[in-house]
Sequence to fold (490 residues):
Amino acid sequence: MKHGFLDKYSDLKSPIHSLSATAKVIVFVGLIFFCVSSRATAYRSYAGYFGFLVISLAASRVPVIHLLRRSLAILPFMAMAALSIPFIGGGTRNAGYAASEPHPGVIVFQGVVIKSYISIFSLLLLSSVTPFPLLLGGLRKIGAPRIFLSLTSFTYRYLFVLVEELERMKRARDSRCYGGKWPWQAKVVGRMIGTFFVRSCERGERVYQAMVSRGFDGRLASEASQPMTAKDYVFVLCSLALFVCLRVVVSPGRTL
Amino acid sequence: MRKLVEIESLHFSYPDGTIALKGVSLTVSEGEKVALIGPNGAGKSTLLLHLNGIFRGDGSVMIDGLSVEKSNLKTIRQKVGLVFQNPDDQLFCPTVFEDVAFGPHNLGLDAGEVQRRVSESLAAVGMLEAARKSPFRLSFGEKKKVAIATVLALRPSLLVIDEPTANLDPRARKGITALLNELGGTQVLATHDLSLARELCGRTIILDAGVKVADGRSAAILQDEILLGTHGLL
Fold:
């Protein structure tokens, strides 16, 4: 895992990259909100949301393969949704549905898969076209809770430090002819996890001490985020108008 | 001359019972550069953490005439710029700018003054062009410099650095040594690097097993091979 893992391609030059982070956060998070609140069978709306994302992706010059590969992260969630199918609406099958109609669980499954995929695609695109610090600034601007932002910021900063630490431990283990029967291996891995946890806690303490040494009193001050320009307002208003149309006009109705 | 640090009979034990400091007394005057040397586990880092009240042991610690107690901590932490050994512990923000601005923000300064201090501190360590970078994109030596800038932004009266040259390659070590020389002011440097002590500090204190065992001119102490050998420094 390398440092640029989370926001790779975020420093390209493109019309989408040049928009303010706040505008991009409003639009891409807004898209998720509208998409998730749609009916499970609102296929035309889904096509509209996905079309918007594809056009944005093309304009951003971020490689398609990059997003496709990352979006595979959704697979475990799809598997979980599939597991729930037999338990959804099964009782009404014989009474209310014709044999030719799909099982209600299947409809829910399709909805969950499509909505999850569009949501993850939207977030991946957002993080690929916005450097992470600016993304945090944008989230701050739209009123995301400070504690959430602080946690996200710390995670971004320390995730790779911790991964490297874990890799160093693994290398140290493997250099000493790690092997043997599985109960022994499990014991070793258990100890490693314990040690890793203690080391991370100790690091957390040292980081906190370094913060307190510079006058930290529990409140994280924030850097000013990018201001919104006329171009950003046009992008936000046009995009939201499109989403409202897709949600209210193209496929109206309740969520399920 | 004004005394910036006055420590009297300082004792400290960790919660697990390890005794780290056993009655340390010392003073540091304004303008002095003091090397604090000693073997691993001597209590150097523990002593440094007492200078800004992160640790509070038994005994008296005064910084620029102020006793290290809760009501004075904010002022004391502005006066004592403490740089940690591992810059990854010190630099926690997504960008270098935000990290250097962290201290000034905590002082409640306005945006213009914060910007001024950040530029001034980064320029002082030669890292102005890295302001928008993420700390993890910097080399270890660059991180060290930025870590120093984060405390310079508080305009401290006393610069306290734990192992300034640890884990640096010769070129980066040279850069940090030159930087500390240029920065001037009052400095306390905890180090194993005897040549750094020789080059930069007029005075050296040896700490071993929580006890101050020597305190005097660096030229004399660092030539005393028996003394250095006895305390695991040669």
About this structure: Chain A touches chain B through 26 residues (CB under 8 Å).
